[in-house]
């Protein structure tokens, strides 16, 4: 994008920030994020221009208001999860929606394949897992696999694996988004066949109450990571007014931020799987509370809160 076009697209927003600086802490932080994003772009592509100097000065005034008498590092950490990450969710909501749709379609493919092909479950999950689970079902403990390893070791193994899977969703997006869709295909088909297996054994509802204690956060994170991969891939496919390299840098940075932001959720899911899911005898009401709370958190943090935050930012731009 040329500097003149960059200035034309953003001048009114900058002037609004300069003349009517918001006093509400949430609005002030949201405005600061928007300014620093523009400043980062200007520093990258117009490092010696007056535009960069102007934005640097504007960002400095906001910085002083937000961080005065506080430690910058700790506040930057909190600001990322409170403002920056949710705004990225809103900005790339279409990619997140596409990732969800594809994942659901691939999961349905796994269900149908398992239903109409008796060998499909073994092909996807492996003979060892199926045989072990069949033995556990015969013993009256169908989810005994979650009790087979010490909680601490299990947490470490699951956390490492799930962070790897999440990063794979994102990094494979570099292959023009097709790579992330492939990762979604593999995980969606596995989930579908896995879930159908338990329903075919008459353990469908019980499997939901047990497995989705951790699965809600885990699968949600993978879907969002798939969306981050689409952000990366689409930056190559659809550069818009940017050069392809500029678009790729921007998409890679924003997709990486989304991916890194998911790590605490991934770790919480691993904690649930290692320390909570193993208690298959827990009351149904407790399982439902954990499931509902996890789902409500995902919907709020990824969809509702970002929309509310964007509305506040839009109010600053138009009415102040």
UniProtKB/TrEMBL annotation:
The chain crosses the membrane at residues 96-116, 153-182, 219-239, 251-272, 284-304. It comes from the Bacteria. InterPro entries: SpoIIM-like. Keywords: Membrane, Transmembrane, Transmembrane helix. It holds the Pfam family SpoIIM. This is Uncharacterized membrane protein SpoIIM, required for sporulation. It comes from Mucilaginibacter gossypiicola.
């Amino acid at each position: 994008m040329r500097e003149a076009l960059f200035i034309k697209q953003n001048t009114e927003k900058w002037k609004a920030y300069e003349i009517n600086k918001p006093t509400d802490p949430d609005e002030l932080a949201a405005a600061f994020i928007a300014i620093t994003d523009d400043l980062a772009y200007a520093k990258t592509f117009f490092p010696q221009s007056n535009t960069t100097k102007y934005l640097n000065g504007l960002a400095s005034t906001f910085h002083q208001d937000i961080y005065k008498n506080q430690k910058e590092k700790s506040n930057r950490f909190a600001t990322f999860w409170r403002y920056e990450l949710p705004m990225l969710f809103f900005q790339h909501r279409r990619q997140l929606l596409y990732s969800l749709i594809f994942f659901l379609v691939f999961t349905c493919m796994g269900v149908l394949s398992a239903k109409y092909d008796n060998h499909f479950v073994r092909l996807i999950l492996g003979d060892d897992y199926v045989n072990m689970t069949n033995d556990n079902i015969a013993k009256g403990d169908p989810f005994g696999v979650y009790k087979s390893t010490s909680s601490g070791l299990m947490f470490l193994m699951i956390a490492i694996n799930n962070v790897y899977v999440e990063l794979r969703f994102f990094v494979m997006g570099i292959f023009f988004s097709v790579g992330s869709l492939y990762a979604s295909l593999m995980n969606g088909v596995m989930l579908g066949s896995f879930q159908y297996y338990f329903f075919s054994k008459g353990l469908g509802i019980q499997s939901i109450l047990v497995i989705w204690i951790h699965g809600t956060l885990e699968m949600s994170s993978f879907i969002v990571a798939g969306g981050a991969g689409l952000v990366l891939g689409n930056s190559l496919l659809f550069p818009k007014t940017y050069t392809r390299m500029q678009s790729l840098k921007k998409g890679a940075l924003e997709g990486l931020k989304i991916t890194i932001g998911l790590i605490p959720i991934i770790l919480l899911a691993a904690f649930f799987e290692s320390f909570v899911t193993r208690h298959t005898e827990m009351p149904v009401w407790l399982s439902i509370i954990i499931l509902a709370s996890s789902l409500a958190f995902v919907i709020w943090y990824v969809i509702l809160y970002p929309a509310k935050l964007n509305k506040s930012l839009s109010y600053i731009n138009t009415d102040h």
